[in-house]
Amino acid sequence: MTASAPLIGLDIGGTKTAAALIGPDGDVLERRQVPTPARSGPEAVLDAAAVLAADLLDAAGSGPVGVGTAGTVDPATGTIRYATDSLPGWTGTPVAHALAERLARPVLVTNDVNAAALGECWSGAGRARTHLLLVSIGTGLGAAIIRNGRIEAGARGGAGGVGHLPVPSAERLRCGCGRYGHLEAIASGRGLSAAYAVETGARVTGQAVAQRAAAGDAVAQQVLDRAGTVLGAALAGLVALLDPQAVLVAGGAAGALLPAASAAYSAELPAGWADVPLLPAALGADAVMVGAVRLVMTHSEQ
């Protein structure tokens, strides 16, 4: 693999699977995307991902393919240790081995939030920073820690599970893990939906809560403000624990929560970390694929 050769990054999620050809500076040169055939099982998901990557192989260098995927990934084997039902049967899937067989080249795999953080650190909002915390707020809430430009995976590949921190104002809200009172239970699309239902009896999506707030719904705005305040305070505490150079917020629910989160973050941030900014992520839907390629590059550098 030469320094100038483009590489392939894959993003395998519960809704879509995407592939991109990424240049040596993090630029996206080509993209491919299909709906993830999640209900057809892991083999169908792997086949779909392999077809997308194979379509880009002729234009890529000879290096490994990088993958960011939903689920907790064993960093040593590229096998899924745990996944939710957004990808039925995904737990235990040997993603690295299975895709390497299909593509006839090495494959490196990490969790999708980890990949997004690597991408943002390389060519996004975290560019030129080597210590980063990224929080991804979508249907659920996940996070990734970057230290010295590399993923801090933890002992089992699960580092960054900040969604399960106990927080105030979430006592009546159920987290995706099944317990109550966690950060994900209030500061996520699912959490916004649940909190709005508690207040009004109406069950709508988290996106709809944000839309109602923008249209002047006072209860919806209260739900957003409360969730954002809890999120911002939690992130300020995590800065003191992890000592990053910046905190990035990504995901579909990030924009709705960021105003209140920013205010609470600034109010709660200890003085010793007053220069650590809270920023919106910049790469959008490309972040996981860009970061998957960065995973390959940092592995090669090792």
TrEMBL record:
Coiled coil: none annotated. It comes from the Bacteria. Pfam families: ROK. InterPro entries: ATPase_NBD, ROK. Belongs to the ROK (NagC/XylR) family. This is ROK family protein. It comes from Micromonospora sicca.
